[in-house]
Design a protein that fits this description.
single chain; 183 residues; alpha/beta; 7 helices
Length: 183
């Protein structure tokens, strides 16, 4: 049995993530999905809680044959020990998947096998682009799995990101360790 690890902030889980999971599913039997920046929510950069992101992922992959383990990973802000932190929070895994250069470097330095994947329509399927579309509530629904649309509606996610985007700017500050947690 081969188990993979794929980390993202999943703010929100979108079709690019979904295609990546489908790609990974061809190579592994089980997949640990690291929910990066799990301690952040209710900002323009990170509007959804870890629990909401777990719901998005779990419901989007409900019909998949792939066994998944969504695991919240809080930010550490210390890159030299980040892989150890991830391993301490996750089931064991054989291979890490990422296109983030820092994540690739950190796993490689730790002696882990790292695989990269093709990018899927990156100019549209990027978390920041989707969040901007959510702020104006236009053109985002077709970029996420239907389950994500339902969950965003259930939690009033569009209203939330609109409200936190209208603050005095403090909520719009990106997390300094976000570099280890790609979109």
């Amino acid at each position: 049995m081969r188990r993979g690890f794929y980390i993202g902030r999943f703010q929100p889980y979108h079709d690019g993530h979904h295609r990546m999971v489908e790609h990974i599913a061809k190579e592994v039997d089980e997949l640990v999905l690291g929910i990066g920046s799990a301690d952040d929510s209710h900002t323009r950069h990170d509007p959804f809680t870890a629990g909401e992101r777990i719901m998005m992922i779990t419901k989007s992959l409900a019909d998949s044959d792939l066994v998944i383990y969504p695991v919240p990973i809080e930010d550490l802000n210390r890159n030299a020990v980040w892989v150890s932190h991830v391993r301490s929070m996750s089931p064991t895994f054989d291979v890490a998947y990422s296109n983030n250069p820092l994540v690739v470097q950190l796993f490689s330095e730790a002696g882990m096998e790292v695989q990269q994947s093709p990018m899927f329509d990156r100019e549209k399927l990027e978390g920041s682009e989707i969040r901007e579309r959510m702020i104006v509530d236009e053109g985002w629904r077709e970029l996420v799995p239907p389950a994500v649309v339902d969950i965003v509606a259930e939690i009033d996610g569009v209203e939330r990101i609109q409200r936190v985007s209208d603050t005095d700017g403090a909520a719009a500050q990106p997390n300094p360790s976000g570099s280890t947690d790609p979109e």
